[in-house]
Design goal:
InterPro entries: Homeodomain-like_sf, HTH-type_TetR-like_transc_reg, HTH_TetR, TetR_C_Proteobacteria. The chain is mainly α. It contains eleven helices and no strands.
Length: about 210
């Protein structure tokens, strides 16, 4: 195990991140203090600064950790047929939606919205840079690979991605953020992923490569 991995796995670091998450969500990023984070983590400022140079660095670590769980697997297989493409897409949809609607991620989005209302965009920028952008790059790469196999038309990739994520997410995130509906359960997530995949199947060219 290298030194960076040891630092990442250190339980003191984990305690600081958990305490910081609670304080950020409760008080907002700007109002949160390292003193309060240290108190809740039951550690010292000296220990905190061994791992993080600033409050902003703690936030960045929190967002990146959550976003790593959201991102598609680096082993997402290159599609070689229409059937495989759709099967992988449905599997990805289930995993993505499960993490995207996770209560901790919802709390971070609420924090980003609250901070934006106060004129601060740091949380939103971190969520976008570490969450949405890597996911879209990975999804676009997957669709590009499909286009190279003749499974989808390259000129339609942007439209297909837009429709796929629109159907997959729908109003679920908004309803979860507002608290008007409970988070989707496993069955509802599976149904939504299947629906988004069927939408792709209908939009794809009928003479797509079959393998």
């Amino acid at each position: 195990m290298n030194e960076q991995q040891k630092i990442t796995d250190d339980p003191r670091r984990g305690a600081i991140l958990q305490a910081a998450f609670d304080v950020f969500v409760e008080k907002g990023f700007e109002a949160a203090t390292t003193a309060e984070i240290v108190r809740r983590a039951r550690t010292s400022k000296r220990t905190l600064y061994e791992f993080f140079a600033s409050k902003q660095e703690i936030l960045t670590a929190l967002v990146r950790y959550g976003s790593q769980k959201l991102q598609p697997s680096p082993d997402l297989p290159e599609p070689h047929s229409r059937a495989q493409f759709l099967a992988v897409l449905e599997q990805f949809g289930r995993a993505f939606l499960r993490e995207f609607l996770h209560p901790e991620r919802t709390a971070m989005y609420r924090l980003a919205i609250a901070e934006a209302g106060r004129g601060g965009a740091l949380v939103a920028r971190e969520l976008d840079a570490s969450g949405r952008q890597p996911v879209m790059r990975a999804a676009t790469r997957f669709f590009d690979q499909a286009a190279a196999r003749g499974i989808v038309r390259r000129e339609e990739i942007a439209t297909l991605l837009s429709v796929y994520f629109s159907v997959l997410i729908g109003f679920a995130q908004l309803q979860t953020l507002l608290g008007t509906e409970p988070p989707l359960g496993a069955d509802a997530i599976a149904e939504r992923a299947a629906l988004a995949t069927r939408a792709m199947a209908r939009m794809m060219q009928p003479d797509s490569a079959d393998g």
